[in-house]
Amino acid sequence: MATVKYTVKDNWGSGFIGNMTVEGGTSGTRGWTVEFDAGFAITNIWGAEIVSHVGTHYVLRNASYNANVPSGGSVTFGFQATPGSAGGTAATGLSLNGEGNEPPVLPTLTVGDASVVEGNSGTKQMVFTVSLSKAATGPVTVAYATVDGTATAGQDYVAKSGTITFAAGETQKTVSVTINGDRVAELNETLALRLSAPTGATLADGAAAGTILTDDVIVPKIAIADASMKEGDSGTRDLAFTVTLSEATSGPVTVTYATADGSAKAGADYIAQTGTVTFAAGETSKVINVKVIGDTTVEINEGMKVNLTTATGGKIADGAAVGTIVNDDARISVADATVTEGNNGTS
């Protein structure tokens, strides 16, 4: 099927050049007539003739020398025109020999993900690339706006919105988003760039992820929790203290510890202990077991401590825990007694 295509070649505001190409398709055509509606006024034409111009409707036909368009071939003609209201250059309802054109295949728009290292101060630019699948024959526009992810506008980056315009022949544009540097130890943060309301193209991928890569070292916090248990009547039992990391790390974290007397005494109530806790990459919890010595002595609950001392790869946030040895021996007591003696015999 033969078709006709229209492009604006040059536009200087008060006038423009338009080109139309008649393509022969698979069958070709012998003689051709092009019809369309337009708000502009043709002032000069070459390669074709104006048959009629009624209102906004134009009918054009071939010149004597270019009537025949072979299969797979094409003929181009052009004109100079003054634009319609608001600078209009559009030609709508194009038909060739009384048959409408097949809808044109519009180019598609995509936006690629982006990332940038944030830095410790000042700002950096995160650059998103917006692409057209093929060069357009006329202007293509698309709106864009940033959207918070884990990153917050006004704090981590500067919110941005606007419109991208591709001129005829262009296939790539960029959008730069300002990233704020800081010295806060944090995880990588994200934002999004979203495209909307395209003209002259369709959206194939209208959202991109932007990753702000932290360059500040995250130091995990180390804490130890209190513990308690019944002492038992003999042997030993484990009093378990849990040591935790605030977050998993990619490398080892170590912390040394030592027990300390409270009302409970090392050697009598528990076995003194020192050592090192090591968190492998990815681990966040460890246990220190302190041996408690059982007895049958009736006594009050007793206490001892485990203190964290030196850490590598992490920071001690809560370095002291109290261990309570709960007495489980029953108290034996004798109550006072009274009796009236009577006048004889025994009571």
Describe, in plain words, how this protein is organized in 3D.
This protein has 347 residues and is an all-beta fold. The protein folds into three domains: 3-100, Immunoglobulin-like (Sandwich); 108-213, CalX-beta domain (Immunoglobulin-like); 221-326, Immunoglobulin-like (Sandwich), CATH 2.60.40. The chain is built from no helices and 29 strands. It has strands at residues 3-11, 16-23, 29-30, 33-38, 41-46, 48-54, 57-62, 68-69, 74-82, 91-96, 99-100, 108-111, 114-117, 123-132, 140-148, 161-166, 172-180, 189-199, 202-205, 207-213, 221-224, 227-230, 236-245, 253-261, 274-279, 285-293, 302-312, 315-318, 320-326. It has a five-stranded antiparallel beta sheet with strand order 6-7-4-10-11, with no helix packed on it. Strands 13-20-18-15-16 form a five-stranded mixed beta sheet, with no helix packed on it. Strands 22-29-27-24-25 form a five-stranded mixed beta sheet, with no helix packed on it. Strand 10 and strand 11 (99-100) form a beta hairpin. The N and C termini lie far apart (133 Å). 23% of the residues are buried. The model has no long low-confidence stretch (mean pLDDT 89).
